[in-house]
Amino acid sequence: MTYQQAIQIAKEQLEAKHIYSGFAFNYMLELTQLQDLNLYLIKDEEIPTSLLEVYQQGVIRLLNDEPLAYVLGFEWFYGRRFKVNQDVLIPRQETEELISNVIMDMDELFEDHCVIADVGTGSGNCAITLALETNSQVIATDISFEALEVAKENNKLLESNVTFFQGDMGQPLIDNKLKVDVLVCNPPYILEDEEVQSSVLTYEPHSALFGGQDGLKYYRQILDEAKFFLNDKAMMAFEMGFSQQDNLRKEILKRYPHAKVSFKQDISGKDRMCFVYLNTVY
Question: Is 22 part of any domain?
Answer without folding.
Answer: yes
